What we know:
This protein has 127 residues and is mainly α. The chain has helices at 3-22, 30-50, 54-57, 63-82, 102-115, 123-126.
Amino acid sequence: MTPVTRQEVLGLYRKIFRIAKKWQSASGQIEETIKEKEYIKNEAKTLFRKNKNVSVLTVTDPKLIKQCIEECEARIEIGLHYNIPYPRPIHLPPMGLAHKQGRTLRHQEKLRKISKPIYLKSHDEVS
């Protein structure tokens, strides 16, 4: 990991904890605020620990590091904008319409994977 990328990642980590420290829930209830603050901290720790070896594994491919940084920035912006720390759900058509065999199912699975927003890429892997 280049020094610039390392500084950028550490800056994002600090930014998340500063946001968690100042976080107020939309309902204004103390219990909700505490619960959401803990969620923000735990989610950040989990995802950053999960991705700490990305730089070692992708020495020749910085695209994955950049994708993780973009996901983090997107989740921060969406969380601040909507005042919800949890990932926003996506609404895709159900896959139940395709036959359970052949290319159509594989094609629909591929389309679902491609259409997943960047801010949900790592959420399903951790949850």
